[in-house]
Amino acid sequence: MGTLGLFDDTEMDGVQALGPRACVLRGFARPVAGDLLSAIDEVARISAFRHLVTPGGYTMSVAMTNCGALGWTSDSRGYRYTAIDPETGEPWPAMPDALRRLAHDAAAAAGFERFEPDACLVNRYAPGTKLSLHQDKDERDLDAPIVSVSLGMPAVFLFGGLRRDDATAKVPLFHGDVAVWGAEDRLRYHGVMPLKDQPHPTLGSQRINLTFRKAG
User: Fold this and answer.
1) What are the φ and ψ backbone dihedral angles of 44, each rounded to 5 degrees?
2) Is 109 exposed, middle or buried (0-12, 13-18, 19+ CB in 10 A)?
């Protein structure tokens, strides 16, 4: 799969296939974007965005927080899910209804009707930040899909194969787009190229990504 042509986020809706059980739902979250952003603000007031440190001592460029019964975290002891925010010593904020509904509806639209996430990773990207190729494999339930919502600045999503050195598709993602992958596509390597500074009318020079998972 090659690079898709860039286009404005209002020009194209519908479903773009990325694999047998992987797709982008173009513009799917746009009608409820305001509700999602308000919910994210509520989450961040309880558990603030932070830059995690990898087991190897590298500080991640992407800032993140979590909501739901479980939250993903990283430090010198490794990558893992926890029920407690290590910075506050309290449970992660409950997943707001607006987020849960969107994740459920997007998964159903992609053919995963019974998806009920228990973790939502909230990533905040600034210009120049990126996400290296990786697999999401810390979850106990690898049958459940990943639902990934893009808000704010556009990004180029890298979607590869089951091996790190497999070829990757470069998929532009815009405000309101939702990527969903599961089943035989669940363990595909994926990442995000360094973000260009293309300010969004509402969010300015940042991109917010919501990644919903069934972790427990």
Assistant:
1) -70, -25
2) middle
pTM over the 0.90 mark:
yes
State whether residue 74 is helix, strand or coil: strand
Q: How far apart are CA 93 and CA 102, in angstroms?
A: 17
Point out which residues pair with 14 in neighbouring strands. Answer: 26
Rounded to whole angstroms, the maximal C-alpha distance in the chain is 46
d(CA 139, CA 158): 21
Domains of the chain (ranges plus CATH)?
14-213 (2.60.120.590)
Query: Which tokens hold the place of 40?
Result: 């994210």
Summary mean pLDDT of the chain: 93
pLDDT at 1 over 50: no
Return the sign of the alpha-carbon dihedral for residues 31, 34, 35, 40: positive
Please give the Cα distance from 216 to 6 (Å, whole number). 37
Asked if residue 7 has pLDDT above 80, the reply is no
Phi, psi for residue 180 in degrees, rounded to 5: -135, 130
Distance CA 157, CA 131 (A): 9
